[in-house]
Amino acid sequence: MSELIHITAGGRPLCIEHAWVGVPDPQAPLLVFLHEGLGSLAMWRDFPERLCRAAGVRGLVYSRPGYGRSTPRPGAERWGLDFMHIQAEQVLPALLDALGVVGPYHLLGHSDGGSISLIHAARAAGRVASCTVMAPHILVEAFGLISIREARRAYLETDLRAKLARYHDDVDSAFWGWNDIWLAPDFPQWQITSELKNIVAPVLAIQGLDDQYGTMAQIDGIAAAHPDTRLLKLPACGHSPHKDQPEAVIDAVSRFLADPLAAPKRPNAHAA
User: Fold this and answer.
1) DSSP-H helix ranges across 56-191
2) Fold of 3-258
3) Is the Cβ–Cβ distance between 3 and 18 less than 8 Å?
4) How far apart are alpha carbons 96 and 197 in whole angstroms?
């Protein structure tokens, strides 16, 4: 069951939807989940619970501002190129502080949430024990923008809006915040490759071979910049590995959390 907590981030009061899952022991290792660009706490469904139970850890799942039951994005507000940095450097630390989380903690982020996880791991190096990212973005590819333009068409012309409305109190806040910035004229210059060298925690980077939003350049780029990276490239898998290949992801992440340093650094497409 999710709860709401009031925080202040960047001088702005926010209400954040969150839930604790997995092992109920507050002394157990903590895994923080960061959702995708159109995601929310509810859109993870039972994956965080299943993973945390398998790994024997406690999980914190939350909806970022603009998503789920958290404070919506004001209608006139347009995100800038720093929107992921704001989440990584202001919102997530404020939430963790409000919940009494000191660290070390583990991160698991999907898509935009993966990028935010990498930025946070680079900026809060002493607090992050490990970082798992699924289909993260470290740079903008024309390939991925095609799919984002298609998402805009689907939102306007199909039942996508109605489907997303099940998971967001203000569905337009969620969709247009994400879609407008990704399709902004200056967004192709966005990148976080320069951040990666500052990460000290081990990283597990997972991506589907059929990802419609990015090529393997995304996770290969992480490995090139951060030597302590393990790669998992999954066949028959699109942009959401935890939905398309949940058992493979749960197994890989569980073993990574159990001993991040012992996992092989270059697993093949079927193992981690």
Assistant:
1) 83-86, 92-98, 112-123, 142-157, 160-165, 171-182
2) Rossmann fold (3.40.50)
3) yes
4) 24
Number of Cα atoms under 13 Å in the Cβ half of residue 171: 12
Cα–Cα distance for residue pair 109/131, rounded to 1 Å: 8
Does the pLDDT of residue 271 top 80, yes or no? no
* Assessment of whether the complete model's pTM goes beyond 0.85: yes
Q: In this structure, are residues 223 and 180 in contact, taking their beta carbons and an 8 Å threshold? A: no
Length of the chain equals 272
Question: What's the CA gap between 168 and 29, in Å, rounded?
Answer: 29
Asked, as a colleague might, if the bond just before 104 is cis with ω within 30 of 0, I would say: yes
Ramachandran bin of 232, using left for φ above 0, alpha for ψ from -120 to 50, beta for the remaining angles: beta
Closest CA to 48 of 100, 106, 120: 106
- For 32, 33, 229, the CA distances from 250, given in Å and listed in that order, are 15, 13, 18
Q: Which amino acid is at 75?
A: G
Alpha helices of 4-91 — where are they, by DSSP H?
47-55, 83-86
DSSP code of 245? S
Report DSSP state, residue 74: P
Question: Given strand 30-34, what is the order of strands in its sheet?
Answer: 3-9, 12-22, 58-62, 30-34, 105-110, 128-134, 203-208, 229-234
Amino acid identity at 252 = A
Tell which residue, 107, 176, 188, has the closest CA to residue 140. 188
- The per-residue pLDDT for range 26-62, each reduced to its tens digit, is 999 999 999 999 999 999 999 999 999 999 999 999 9
Number of H helices, E strands in the chain: 10, 8
* pLDDT tens for each residue of 221-256: 999 999 999 999 999 999 999 999 999 999 999 999
Quick: pLDDT tens for 129-161.
999 999 999 999 999 999 999 999 999 999 999
